[in-house]
Specification:
InterPro entries: DUF6168 (IPR046166). Keywords: Membrane, Transmembrane, Transmembrane helix. It holds the Pfam family DUF6168. The chain has 132 residues and is mainly α. It has one domain. It contains 4 helices and no strands. The longest helix has 29 residues. The relative contact order is 0.16.
Length: 132
């Protein structure tokens, strides 16, 4: 496995693990259920998809050099589609999406997106320097 991919996987697992712990701590302090609202699934799905998209982009960085932005956006659209498939129905079951439901999905989504963008931008900026 390349150093770039290894570093990304370590970084995303570390930051989402810490954030997940803090998320649970806040829920506990607010005396809310810790594992409600598909929170574990939300973290797992967002981390897994971020890793898949990152690895795909990295592996095919030379072949699809001019399409990497579109591929990244497609990965984000897949995440959004999975939100509706896996979460929206359960969240909307009672007629509205509560704050805890919203944050259960949005925190890991936003965190993984930021880590993806930061990590991708680091090696995309160097991409023009690499031999074809």
């Amino acid at each position: 496995m390349s150093k770039t991919i290894s570093n990304f996987v370590i970084r995303i697992l570390f930051f989402t693990g810490v954030t997940f712990g803090l998320h649970l701590l806040v829920l506990k302090l607010m005396e809310l259920p810790l594992f409600a609202d598909k929170i574990v699934l939300a973290y797992i799905v967002n981390v897994a998809l971020a890793i898949i998209v990152f690895v795909f982009l990295f592996v095919f960085r030379q072949r699809f050099k001019n399409q990497l932005g579109f591929i990244f956006i497609s990965g984000s659209m897949i995440k959004f589609a999975l939100f509706f498939t896996l979460f929206y129905g359960a969240y909307k079951k009672d007629g509205s999406i509560s704050e805890t439901e919203f944050f259960a999905f949005f925190i890991p989504y936003l965190l993984t997106l930021v880590i993806e963008i930061f990590s991708l931008s680091k090696w995309l900026n160097k991409l023009d320097e690499l031999p074809s």
